[in-house]
Structure formats: C-alpha cells, structure tokens
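Task: encode each sequence below as structure tokens.

Item 1
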Amino acid sequence: LGCALAAAECGGGAMEIRLEDKITCHAWNADRTMVAVCPNNNEVHIFKKPPQAEAMWTREHVLNQHSALVTEIAWASKTNRILTTAQDRNAYVWTLEGDTWQHDLVILNISYAGTSVKWCADEQKFAVGSGSKMVAICSFDANNNFWVSKQIKNHTSTVVAVAWDPTSSVIIATACMDYKCRVFSAYIKSVDGKEAETRWGKNPKLGTLFFEIPAFGWVRDVCFDATGSTLAFASHNSTVTFVDGERSR
C-alpha cells in the first residue's frame, strides 16, 4: 500500500491521501468511513474519512497493545470487531465500548509470528496463519470469557495467507511457503452445531484435509469467489491458479 490510500477504494474518483509515512497493512470498516492502518510498527491507527473529499482525515484511535510489528488487520463488517496479529506471536480482538477500543487477548499457542488473520462469514470464528507451520482456528469461550484456539497443522512451512469460504464457516483455505495450497475443515461442534454437507465434503473433525494442490513457488495468497465454488491462489512463479470446488472432491 505504501504511504498513501486511494480514495477509489471507498468510492469516487482516485486521489492520494497521505496518512502515514509507511503503511504495512490496512483494513476498512463496513461502510468505508474509517480505515485501520499499521504505520510499520507495533501500533494500529484508526482514521476517519472527512465529509469533504479535500479535507484532512482525522486519527481517531491508536491501538498499541502489540509489542512487535503488526502483520495483518481484519475488521468485521457485522460485529465491528477489529482483529490484529503481529510478530509478537499474539492476536487481539478489539471491541468498541463507548469511545474506547477494548482488547481481548487470544490464546494462540504459537512459537513464531502471526502472519495473517481472517474472520469467517458469520464472524463467530477467525483464523490466524503463522510461522509455526499451522493455522489457529479461534472461537469465543463464554464460560471463561476469552478467545481460544484449535490448531490445524499439516503444513511444512509458514502459512502466509488464509481464506474462508464465504458461504460456509467450516471451510478454510491456506497459502503456504511449502509450495502448496490446501483446503481444510474448520468445523468446531460447539460453534457450528450439527455437521453439514459442503461442496468439499462432509464436516469431519477440525483439521481434516479436503484438498491439496502443489504450486511451482511459494503460495503468496488465496481466496474464494463470492459463491465459494471457485478457489484461486497466486504463487511466486508469477502464476494464478483456479480450482473448481465441485470437481475437486
């Protein structure tokens, strides 16, 4: 993203808005009136869009609980919660209470940096990729009042990106530096309820590998289309691969 944000991302004509000298990751809120950015340090700065396009954006909040570089931000569109992870091996869920963002620590149990975060479609769970060769699938434990994680392993290098099926909260894809893209079950009975059929298969226990495809380079990113039927991933050898979920079972 560099040092500027394009207003085209939130509608209207393109113009350069200089918020920080450096921006290493960012996330918009649901209506694109606010943006959270990491200025290449351990903080997240939240800016508010002005009523007039030419006016200055205002810094409304600073989230500074992390002790190392923030690596990714995810802003939930339904619950308005902000999710962050960092090189300090932690993740936090931030909830706006009044005019203050309160943080809840997530128990990740990882030994290396968190690299990527994504909320699932219903925002009751989220995933954290990491340098620990695994993905943490996290949900809220109401009895103990904190976020807990269950691990999906079966990777041999850093998981640099994760993506949820937008039509299902039990299917997750991972992009890994071991030259492979994978699709797993992220089913948690206490959260997801009764098992259900998906295009990738039934929902067995968490971590079941539905699909694996090799690439000819590090897999850098992965995503599903809006219907969840097609998976795409980009690898370091300048290729984009598309996978038909209906035909891959």
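Item 2
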Amino acid sequence: NADGSFSLANPTTGGTFSFDYLLANAGGTDAATVTVEVLEPPAAGDDPPAGGILVVFFGNPAGTVVSSSGASTNLLANDTLGFPNASITSFGGGDLGGTVADNTAGSGVALAEGTLTVNADGSFSFANAFSGIFSFNYRLENAAGSADATVEIVVI
C-alpha cells in the first residue's frame, strides 16, 4: 500500500514469504525486500488412529529391544510438523503414569514392562519385558505451539 502497510491474507501453510518494493520521491528511489515468517503450530495424530499407524511387533519375546526402524514406525509419520518443524519434546502418561510433560525426549524411562526411550525425531526403543499392549503420550512442539498424541505399541 502507498502508506507502507501490507497484509498477508490467510496463509494456508507456515513458511517464509518475501516481496520487493520500491520507494520513489523527488529525491530518488530506493529498493528493499520484506521477509515475513509465518509460524504454523504442529498437529499430532494418535498412533494408531483410525487409518493411522498401528505399531505392532511380532516375534519379540520378553527381554528383546523393540525399536522403530524407518518411516512406517516413526511416531511423527502421521503428524503435521508445522513451521518451523516441530519435534517431540516430552513423553509420559498412559502406562508410564504421570503426564505427557514428565520425561524429556531422548531420556529412557524404566518401568515394570521394560525401558522406553522416545527421541525428538520420532524414533523410539522399548526394551520390553512382556507381550501385550503398551500406551503412552508424546508432545510435539515448535515456536508456534504444541500438540499431544497417544501411542499404542502392540508386542506379540
């Protein structure tokens, strides 16, 4: 606008947007670039939601380590990371007890069923001491906000 104001109408995704402008008056001209960063909060999807990821491990008897191995078992596979990209910051609740904020991503938590480690990139390992269903929650976070999701791991 002539008064120097501008608007960015309803961006559908986060990211960095830039535009150039030119100022002109009797004394000359000057050009510049405006860069706007639009933040987008993450959205976490439960694992397994209807149609989502069901994390099932077959043939993992008690005492073995179950771990995510690739995109299909990564906890972030069905999440929207937003802008800037969110990462897992904490986990807890469910069979771990407490709340989703109790354990920092990257830490290991010992419990009767085994030891669970959940990493910021969505990978995890579970040194299980049982067969069955195990659940916990994780929190995704970026500069624009946070979102929580529930995970069920089925060890058969």
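Check on item 2: The chain is about 0% helix and 45% strand. The longest strand covers residues 15-25.
End of task.
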